[in-house]
């Protein structure tokens, strides 16, 4: 039958057909709609494809086969109209009921019914092929199960009594728990759609169902699955009483095994809080457990419980979704894997709350991860991350980020920045033996300290108050450091300088200085370790603003411990330091030494400290070089005297 005109199937009340059945076995197609009127029953048994919707205004419309309604079409009940699954599973796009409401309460006699007269559960699947949200105010009763698919929201307004499961494969089901979602129904949040998350929005302030497959219980399994707050802030206390009495949720178990646990979905309109502890439960060597917040703005999610791990492996926490996940001040994080922020914000709630493992903050395209210390200093194993927009900051007050305790090399391509306003000052400290590379455009105003290992700045570090490189620490890189308030870069006794990335390491210090005075003081038994890169054709370290300061000591060859000096060429001159302003200090008497079998001299040419490799390492050349250096020293001293 081609239903181009939108015919009506009507069995008038009171005529000879009362109590009779009309079965339509053929297929109905076309752009029109099907409207059921009258108080008798009509059975649809064909494979119908009409596109104008199915309207059950009065009487019964029964399924005579599985999916006998158009699978992406509209199903609407109103008045005394009843749609009966009749023992068959049926799929539709939209489920509505245009009957009257009193406030937000549905009037049963005005909105129709969804039922199943078979003695077993049949499922009505809704949400296929439509992006619009929809509301059903009719009564869903008896042996009906509901299956929500698609990214949209299904709101259930009536006091439903169906006993089948409520399964959310994608999108949201929004209903008062125990009312729109009856206590007789098991809630299954499965998230089986790889493109769309699945969430239940209770529309009340608490959710306390326990885990299980029985009536009134909940299962959180499959893909991205969880909850959302609608209208009022939501507290999720699975198996508790709403005050944090619920048991620990052990990941990977029968009733709690989402690929990503969703704590506030994209349709949420309020903040949510989870009070349960979560056992990340790594059952293999390395397991990543994702927690998502898909709502944005003030619609945050907070974890009040602890994040811990049992099992034999190491668990990594991965924050996803564009929203903000807040770690409560009461939350203890004791998993042994890393902490990853792939999208949105992870916000600390206590000092040293993160485990001392790797912190990875990433950005890809429009997806940006942020770790916000929120005024609470953190000590992590290392800092890594891809994407220039990845961010580490502190919006709630000053905080220090300490990295390096895992003694491993890491590269962070994002940026470390102060929080908004004047209070969110970030300070950065490198410890341990590994190399921490800052490859992005960082801009924080606190101090930078290198206590151990190597801090390699291959990007830019702007605004730091000062840089202190202590004994055992190395400052390296071919990027740039710009200090604020004329701050200095100071190398202590036993510190190292390593401009080893095939480009000039630029220092912009205002009226501050690159202070080598402690590293080259005459009383020191150690030398300044200088990791050369002969491939750099310009200055290896350029003090563009500020001063290269040797202090009251003198600069001699023995003040340097040259390393990584392969690729030398005889007769070449290498610029170790360039200073835009006059160098503060003088040369000493010991200016000649050996590097990798080559004889070399330290000299000052203008405002450069250079290393000259002697062409032929024999005594005559050494003698000539020494004479030339002495003459150069005299000229240097004369020039400095003239300036004075």
Structural overview:
The chain is mostly beta strands. Among the domains are: 1-164; 447-644, no CATH class. Helix content is 5%, strand content 43%. The protein has a 16-stranded parallel beta sheet that branches. It has a 16-stranded mixed beta sheet that branches. A hairpin with a 2-residue loop joins β64 (598-605) and β65. The longest helix has 25 residues, at 619-643. The radius of gyration is 36 Å and the shape is elongated. Mean pLDDT is 89; it is low at 1-7, 10-19, 100-106 and 617-644. Keywords: Signal. InterPro entries: Autotrns_rpt, Pectin_lyase_fold/virulence. Pfam families: PATR.
Report the span from N to C terminus: 105 Å
Low-confidence regions:
1-7, 10-19, 100-106, 617-644
Number of strands: 65
Oligomer: single chain
SS strand fraction? 35-45%
Discrete helix count: 2
The helical percent reads under 10%
Overall geometry: elongated
Largest sheet: 16 strands, parallel
Alpha-carbon Rg, integer: 36 Å
SSE-based structural type = mainly beta
Average of per-residue pLDDT values: 89
Organism: Chthoniobacter flavus Ellin428
InterPro entries: Autotrns_rpt, Pectin_lyase_fold/virulence
Pfam families: PATR (PF12951)
Keywords: Signal
């Amino acid at each position: 039958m081609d239903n181009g005109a939108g015919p009506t199937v009507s069995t008038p009340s009171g005529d000879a057909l009362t109590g009779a059945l009309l079965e339509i076995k053929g297929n109905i197609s076309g752009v029109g709609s099907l409207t059921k009127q009258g108080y008798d029953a009509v059975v649809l048994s064909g494979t119908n494809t009409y596109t104008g919707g199915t309207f059950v205004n009065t009487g019964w419309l029964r399924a005579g086969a599985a999916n006998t309604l158009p699978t992406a079409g509209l199903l609407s009940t109103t008045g005394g109209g009843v749609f009966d699954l009749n023992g068959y599973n049926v799929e539709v796009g939209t489920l509505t009921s245009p009957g009257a409401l009193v406030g937000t309460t549905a009037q049963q006699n005005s909105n129709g019914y969804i039922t199943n007269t078979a003695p077993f559960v049949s499922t009505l699947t809704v949400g296929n092929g439509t992006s619009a949200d929809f509301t059903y105010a009719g009564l869903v009763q008896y042996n009906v199960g509901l299956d929500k698919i698609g990214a949209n929201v299904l709101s259930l307004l009536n006091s439903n009594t169906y006993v089948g499961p409520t399964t959310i494969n994608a999108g949201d089901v929004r209903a008062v728990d125990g009312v729109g979602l009856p206590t007789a129904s098991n809630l299954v949040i499965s998230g089986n759609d790889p493109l769309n998350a699945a969430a239940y929005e209770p529309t009340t302030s608490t959710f306390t169902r326990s885990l299980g497959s029985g009536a009134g219980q909940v299962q959180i399994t499959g893909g991205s699955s969880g909850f959302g707050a609608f209208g009022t802030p939501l507290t999720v206390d699975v198996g508790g009483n709403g005050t944090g009495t619920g048991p620990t949720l052990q990941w990977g178990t029968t009733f709690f095994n989402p690929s990503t646990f969703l704590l506030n979905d994209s349709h949420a309109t309020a903040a949510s809080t989870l009070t349960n502890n979560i056992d990340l439960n790594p059952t293999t060597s390395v397991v990543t457990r994702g927690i998502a917040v898909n709502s944005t703005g003030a619609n945050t999610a907070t974890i009040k419980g602890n994040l811990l791990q049992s099992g034999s492996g190491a668990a990594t926490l991965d924050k996803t979704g564009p929203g903000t996940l807040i770690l409560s001040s009461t939350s203890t994080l004791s998993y042994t894997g890393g902490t990853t922020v792939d999208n949105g914000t992870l916000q600390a709630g206590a000092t040293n709350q993160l485990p001392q493992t790797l912190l990875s903050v990433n950005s890809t395209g429009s997806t940006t991860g942020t770790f916000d210390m929120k005024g609470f200093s953190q000590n992590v194993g290392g800092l890594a991350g891809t994407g220039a927009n990845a961010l580490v900051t502190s919006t709630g007050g000053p905080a220090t980020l300490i990295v390096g305790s895992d003694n491993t090399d890491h590269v962070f391509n994002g940026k470390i920045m102060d929080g908004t306003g004047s209070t969110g000052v970030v300070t950065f400290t490198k410890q341990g033996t590994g190399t921490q590379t800052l490859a992005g455009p960082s801009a924080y105003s606190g101090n930078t300290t290198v206590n151990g290992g190597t801090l390699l700045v291959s990007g830019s570090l702007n605004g730091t108050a000062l840089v202190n490189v202590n004994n055992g620490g190395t400052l390296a890189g071919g990027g740039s450091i710009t200090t604020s308030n004329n701050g200095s870069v100071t190398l202590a006794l036993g510190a190292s300088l390593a401009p080893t990335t095939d480009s000039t390491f630029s220092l912009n210090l205002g009226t501050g200085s690159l202070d080598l005075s402690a590293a080259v003081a005459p009383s020191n038994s150690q030398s300044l370790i200088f990791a050369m890169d002969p491939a750099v054709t310009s200055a290896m370290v350029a003090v563009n603003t500020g001063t290269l300061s040797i202090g009251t000591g003198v600069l001699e060859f023995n003040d340097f411990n040259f390393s990584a000096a392969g690729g030398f060429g005889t007769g070449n001159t290498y610029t170790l330091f360039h200073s835009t302003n006059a160098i503060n200090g003088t040369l000493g008497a010991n200016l000649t030494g050996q590097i990798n079998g080559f004889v070399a001299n330290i000299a000052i040419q203008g405002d450069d400290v250079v290393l000259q490799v002697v062409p032929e390492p024999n005594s005559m050349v050494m003698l000539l070089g020494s004479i030339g250096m002495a003459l150069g020293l005299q000229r240097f001293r004369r020039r400095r005297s003239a300036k004075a």
